[in-house]
Write a structure and sequence with these properties.
By secondary structure, the protein is α/β, with parallel strands linked by helices. About 30% of the residues lie in helices and about 30% in strands. Keywords: Methyltransferase, Transferase.
């Protein structure tokens, strides 16, 4: 299983996986904290959801909280599902690694998506996060707890994951003018995800 197989795997397995995805929103405490900290000087908070998948439950929840959501996904079947599930959001079929939008956002999510990129692409993403973050904008992403590559499973297919070392993520945040707000390694209340939260200086 290679990193370049991730998008075709989601094309093939993603819609069936989305239909069975846990919708209890165990992510809510981190989403609520990020929303509380995110600026909203332009009125409704503007959210960029990178690797948005089918939009349920996270984008649905953000829309219900009054946010303006832009979802980005490189899998066409997944972004088409997103457009149907959250029709009030903006749906963009694009690869997050080449994203160049003309707007900035109060909250940027890379939840369960950044870790599908190989390490060198993850490092490059911090420049993209920075260029799309409004002043004071919050970045919320998940990663692995330690450096390395892992192979997971979605449906009947293998799925690539990778992580940098936490010291590398901290250095990248600092290099791209983000202040660390929180780090929760292998958080048991959120399915053992490793969660990072930062704010654009």
């Amino acid at each position: 299983m290679k990193p370049e197989d991730v998008i075709p795997t989601y094309d093939r397995e993603g819609p069936a996986w989305a239909a069975t995805r846990d919708r209890r929103l165990i992510e809510r405490p981190w989403l609520d904290r990020a929303l509380m900290l995110a600026p909203h000087g332009r009125g409704r908070r503007r959210v960029l959801d990178l690797g948005c998948g089918a939009g349920r439950p996270i984008a649905e929840y953000l829309i219900d909280r009054g946010c303006m959501v832009t979802g980005v996904d490189a899998s066409r079947p997944m972004i088409e599902l997103f457009a149907r599930v959250v029709p009030r959001a903006v749906a963009l079929h694009a690869d997050m690694r080449t994203l160049r939008l003309s707007d900035t956002f109060d909250l940027i999510l890379a939840w369960d998506s950044l870790f599908h990129l190989p390490p060198e692409d993850q490092r490059a993403m911090f420049g993209i996060f920075s260029s799309h973050a409004a002043p004071g904008g919050v970045l919320l992403f998940t990663a692995g707890p330690e450096v390395g590559e892992r192979i997971g499973v979605i449906g009947g297919s293998s799925l690539y994951h990778a992580s940098l070392d936490p010291t590398d993520y901290r250095a990248l945040l600092d290099d791209w003018s983000f202040e660390e707000l929180g780090y929760w390694p292998e958080e048991p209340a959120c399915g053992n995800r490793t969660i990072w939260m930062a704010r654009r200086r």
